[in-house]
Specification:
Structural class: mainly beta
CATH architecture: Roll
Shape: globular
CATH class: Mainly Beta
Radius of gyration: 17 Å
Number of strands: 14
Strand content: 35-45%
Helix content: under 10%
Distance between the termini: 38 Å
Number of helices: 2
Order of helices and strands: EEEEEEEEEEEEEHEH
Largest sheet: 9 strands, antiparallel
Number of domains: 1
Length: about 180
């Protein structure tokens, strides 16, 4: 209710490019790296693709302790208000389960954030998005039904590993 009324035009995009500094990447120019982060309503004319991302929530704390995980739901929408341009994204938050990575895997464990029975969503500035994140479900002991598809995973599992082994950039981020 504290936000100003807005009657203007809103633009929606289905991908963005993240540019970040990766000093260990010898193939980049001066350590700079680029990657595409996507939220496509129909990926390859089939299901939606909603990438997960590392979001900087405290720039003063290094590594995963200064970041959270979010799943991009609308990426990104932008608007102008009082001559200022605002590129934003709507994300679904994931909470870290512990203050340290899992002892057995070395990976952080996260779960979808909720307020009661409702998922926790937020509108963030795209500059808070640092890098894509790869989540691996924490599987139980029972086999999964054959009807489960890869695009269902983020909606049906309750725990995920933040895969720091996805690439060397994620390895440097999620320590």
């Amino acid at each position: 209710m504290d936000c100003p009324r807005y009657d203007g035009r809103i633009q929606v995009f289905h991908s963005a490019v993240s540019t970040f500094f990766a000093p260990s990447d010898l193939s980049g120019v001066g350590g700079m790296k680029r990657e595409h982060i996507r939220m496509s309503p129909k990926w390859r004319n089939r299901h939606a693709r909603k990438d997960c991302v590392f979001v900087i929530t405290d720039p003063n704390i290094p590594g995963m302790r200064g970041m959270d995980i979010g799943q991009v739901l609308t990426f990104f929408f932008s608007f102008r208000l009082r001559c200022q341009y605002y590129p934003c994204a709507v994300i679904r938050w994931f909470n870290r389960i512990d203050d340290a990575p899992d002892e057995d895997t070395g990976m952080w464990v996260v779960s979808p954030s909720s307020d009661g029975n409702h998922a926790h969503y937020a509108v963030i500035h795209v500059e808070a998005i640092f890098h894509s994140a790869h989540l691996i479900p924490v599987y139980g002991t029972e086999p999964l039904p054959s009807s489960i598809q890869s695009y269902h995973v983020l909606d049906i599992f309750n725990l995920f590993y933040v895969n720091k082994y996805a690439d060397h950039h994620a390895f440097e981020i999620a320590w």
